[in-house]
Amino acid sequence: MGKIFTPNDNDFGITDAVVIGGGIVGTATAFWLSRAGLEVVLIEMRDGLSTLTTPASAECFRAQFTEPAMAALAIPSIEMFENFAEVIEIPDYNISIKQQGYLFLTDNAATVDDLKENVAQQHKLGVTDSTFLEVEEIHKRFPFVAPTVLAATFRQRDGWLSCHETTQGFAKGCDARFFINTRATGIQTDPKGVCSVETDRGILQTRTVINAAGPFAGDVGRMVGLELPLEPVRRQKVYVKTSVAIPADAPFTVDVNNNCYWRPEAGGVIIGWVDMDEPVSQPAERVPTDWEFPALTLDKVKRLTPFFEEIEKTVRQPDMDTSAGYYMYTPDDQPLIGPVPEVPGFYVNCGYWAGVMLSPQAGKWVSDLVTGAMDPKDNPLRPTRYKEGIGKKEGKTLMSH
Ligand SMILES: Cc1cc2nc3c(=O)[nH]c(=O)nc-3n(C[C@H](O)[C@H](O)[C@H](O)COP(=O)(O)OP(=O)(O)OC[C@H]3O[C@@H](n4cnc5c(N)ncnc54)[C@H](O)[C@@H]3O)c2cc1C
């Protein structure tokens, strides 16, 4: 079983691989590397795993992607979530998975064909159970939706889970060691490539380092002289405690034209809005929230789901809890995964705006790339793709939800 602890001098020495960052992405990576038989140390600067961006998320997952690489990560990741106890080999382990679906809504006639094309593309990519819904069916199945809605896409097996339990499960289900309260401060190289990771508690000698530092992945890249193409953008969400009846079996519901979403949560509802005018910023551990964000977001979600009008009228400030973290954007809005040829032994697993839902399979890919089970050329998310002239934004993406 993985051990999570604050290390002392005796815990440092030689190891096969060091993962920097103990969010869900790094922890899933450590899990798969350990399962592949490597001796693995994960280092996390904070006082626990899953304490920075990962718990700020809405904890949702979907396979409704139109980009081939995103679908290739999401489909097996969801299968792993569905069978999590077997994957980590801990009987009855519970990640509170709820497969109430993802519902993308539009009331804009110009978007209807885009949604239709999305579903056709998803089917081509193997997501064969997503559906395009016509007006009548939408209102029959989801009576809380505004009469103005014209079209939707839906997939029942999409949903949400507990990020905390999932991250802990990956840690418990492997033999890696998880050093908390331990900050990576530098990475040394020699003519063969990476040779050690310096931390504020000691030095780990290794030939393999994985950068899974979430919003700080740019800083970790600079430790080996790389400027990774990463742009951190703050994103916020709100938990609203309310006595207004929320349809408890509702899906994760997205207004694709207004870039906002909501889903039921015990005692209330989670709402979010992806503000396209939010600027790129420097990442920080304490991410500020805007006092007006809950009101702006309530105003947005009520457009296509009018029961929010009642919440808007009755909610009090202390009933709303806003949290924030970063989406990490890349030039094609898809993550960076795999070895960086300029620095042998240095791998990246970063650049996520949907890192929760993609983490299981992304961790597996990194492990397969480290062990040689996957050829770097077969990895569409290799960080060299931009220099190769591939890695461009693709089609009718349903970004950021
Ligand atoms: C409001 C909001 C809603 C979201 N909703 C969803 C959603 O519904 N579904 C979804 O899939 N995604 C969602 N996301 C995105 C998702 O949260 C992230 O993509 C994901 O959590 C990234 O995981 P991570 O492990 O890469 O990052 P993190 O969880 O940030 O982990 C990185 C870790 O690295 C550590 N670290 C950094 N530098 C160092 C260092 N030098 N030494 C040691 N440790 C270091 C940090 O302390 C941190 O714990 C959302 C994000 C936000 C902000």
Query: Uncertain segments of ≥5 residues (pLDDT<50)?
Result: none
CATH architecture of the largest domain: 3-Layer(bba) Sandwich
Which of globular, elongated, flat, extended, rod-shaped describes the shape? globular
Mean pLDDT: 96
Give the tally of β-strands: 20
Task: State the fourth-level CATH superfamily of the largest domain.
Answer: FAD/NAD(P)-binding domain
Main structural class: alpha/beta
Instruction: Write down the domain tally.
Output: 2
Percent helix, as a range, is 25-40%
> If you consult CATH, what is the topology of the largest domain?
FAD/NAD(P)-binding domain
Number of helices: 10
- CATH class descriptor name of the largest domain: Alpha Beta
* Biggest sheet overview: 8 strands, mixed
Terminal-residue CA separation: 34 Å
Radius of gyration: 21 Å
Regarding quaternary structure, how should these chains be classified? single chain
Order of helices and strands: EEHEEHHEHEHEEHEEEEEHEEEEHHEEEH
Strand content: 15-25%
Give the bound compounds. Answer: flavin-adenine dinucleotide
Describe the structure.
Helix content is 26%, strand content 24%. The longest helix is centred in the C-terminal third of the chain and has 17 residues, at 355-371. By secondary structure, the chain is of the alpha/beta class. The strands form four sheets. The protein has an eight-stranded mixed β-sheet, sandwiched between helices. Strands 1-9-3-2-13-20-19 form a seven-stranded mixed β-sheet. It has helices at residues 24-35, 68-82, 84-88, 109-124, 135-141, 163-172, 217-222, 293-301, 308-314, 355-371, and strands at 3-5, 17-20, 40-43, 60-61, 102-106, 131-134, 151-155, 159-160, 177-179, 184-190, 193-199, 203-205, 209-211, 231-241, 252-255, 260-265, 268-273, 320-329, 336-339, 346-350. The protein folds into two domains: 3-58 and 164-230 and 332-385, FAD/NAD(P)-binding domain, CATH 3.50.50.60; 97-157 and 233-324, D-Amino Acid Oxidase, subunit A, domain 2 (D-Amino Acid Oxidase, Chain A, domain 2, 2-Layer Sandwich). Helix 8 runs antiparallel to helix 9. The protein is built from ten helices and 20 strands. Flavin-adenine dinucleotide binds next to helix 1, strand 14, strand 18 and helix 10.
